[in-house]
Amino acid sequence: MGHNLDAHTFPELLGKRFNSKSIQGFSGLVIFLFIPLYSAAVLIGAARFLETTFPAYINFNVALLIYTLIICAYVLAGGLKGVMYTDALQGAIMFIGMTALLVFTYVKLGGVVVAHQALGSLTASVPPKLVEAGHMGWTSMPKFGSTLWWNLVSTIVMGVGIGVLTQPQLAVRFMTVKSNKEINRAVLVGGVFILFMTGVAFVVGALSNVYFVNNPAFGKVSLAVAGGNIDKIIPIFINSAMPTWFIYLFMLTLLSAAMSTTSSQFHALGTSIGRDVFEKVILGGKNVKYTVPITRVGIILGVIATVILGYKLPGSVIAIATAIFFGLCASTFLPSYIGALFWKGMTKAGVMASMFTGFFGTAFWLLFIHQKESEALGLCKFIFNKPTLAKFPWVVVDPIVIMLPVSLAVAFSVSLFTKKMNKEHVNACFKNI
Amino acid sequence: MLGIDDPKIWSAYVLCILSAIFCVIYGVVNWNKGDEVVRLEDKKWVEDEKKSEKGL
Fold first, then answer.
1. Which chain A positions have a beta carbon within 8 Å of B23's beta carbon?
2. ipTM score here?
């Protein structure tokens, strides 16, 4: 469909599929404004590791700047989307690094079963504050319906798990695929790769508790060792438990991950403002002379916004910032994206209604209901003099749980009662599909 | 199972691994399937993409 419509960005695919500059412009603007939140999360992760590895020489602020400079140099020298070979090399480094981390951790803790049993026996060491929030040990689900249960299920599992489907910098890659054969082959590589990236991080993060509690130098659970900042747990664990050569390998792993992710994020950000907002909406698609310069300015602004956010955001923010961006993308784009690809009856009005509902509904939920964000952002306190407008459990329910179904219902129902898309146009979109 | 008592946790652990294995089997079975003829639209798309990337 991307090739049928000659679409080169995610907003352009939606805009051309539904014949609407407003859809393309609005999508581009949302991506341009909010992707820095996610790229800041990536950068913070990398900088925390550097800060922990060289505490005598580099503090967090310097580390953030070093990573930004390295990534900027990479983006400038190597192009934005990255050549397929560099992507493959970065992926290979990440795979080796994460596999080694998993194997080392299990070997160090006495094997898979022994390590898990040791982690299960630490339930008594769970900090009282976490117990109060529903923590029932590191090998048990949190108490059903508790704050932690909602956080785990609605934010981490659903927010990130569903949100990943509509990541603009990832969706655009599907259009570069030559045929279904490549997608079939990618299932093999991707299925294993995802398990080794996210899966290893979740397993090792939890198991680090066993290492820290049993090591007399620490004698505390990971959260306490990291001084309450969960973003520091894995960096501290690797720096104290792993051999020196592995620390450097992991630094390379993180740099690879940061480079491949941020370069595609900055690419999505730049094209959103240059091609989708400026060229299509402001210049009406008639003049392409300014697209490249505006894209470049957009990227520079995006990098600056990312660095500022990197400095300003509080601790323990990586998972939250990621989940906010993923959730926002899911509620805003997923119904329209699914409709664009699989439902010929989806209308322009249905898409617009769904996008506005998803975006503004999620923004409202984050600003006034979901306490973690509403408290940090402060607008609710400023207007209503209280941190949130709702009560438990709503204050811990991630916006995706509410706004994605609402956005889906709006997309479907509005499409049923509004003017259908021109048949010829729809057939052209679905040509050879 | 695997030293984990809570079935919700060990089932998540096992299902993740089984899903990855399923992906491998799917990939192997369909390794050479799904070839598509390169159309005019595909060629034009690649050319346009190259042009806009070069500009950046």
1. 187-188, 190-192
2. 0.91
